[in-house]
Structures are given as structure tokens and as C-alpha cells.
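B., you asked whether I could sanity-check this one before it goes into the benchmark set. Here's the sequence:
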Amino acid sequence: MSTRLDLDGELTIVYAAEQHEQLLRFLTGGPDLELGLGGVTELDTAGLQVLLLAVREARRRGLRLRLTDLSPAVRDVLAVAWLTPDLEAA
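And here's what the prediction gave me:
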């Protein structure tokens, strides 16, 4: 069973530091983690950086972090950045 965190609203420079701290706390939740992004209404490069850092930190800790329920805003930014939903280069 995975531990899940759902983010909603803006994942932008205005909220990046706050979201980063929340995600770091979330990474203590167990080996199998799920990050729901269906409620994210806006994502900018600062928000994308927060997601990339969370994925990198999860991997460093030996955790499995899956991004799920990608909102259109998240899908658009990933497409522009040439990233797949698991934040790997497309």
C-alpha cells in the first residue's frame, strides 16, 4: 500500500519553498509514495524544479515516488520541458 499526497492549486515560484518543505516531509512516509497532481492549476519552472528535486531525493533515499493524476497544467509543462510523467527525459 502506498502513501499518497495530493497537491492542488498553484505550484509556482510563489509557493515553491512551501511545497518543497511539504514534499520533503512526505518523503518520510514510506518506501512506496504517490503524488497526486490532478488539482494543480498552474505549474511554472520553480514548481517543476520542486518536483524534480523531490523525485531525485526519493531515488537517493531508495523510495519509489510515482506522479499520478496529472492535471492539464502539469502535462503541458512536462511536454514543453520534454519530460515524461516520471520526470525522465523524453
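One thing to flag: The mean pLDDT is 93. Otherwise nothing jumped out at me.
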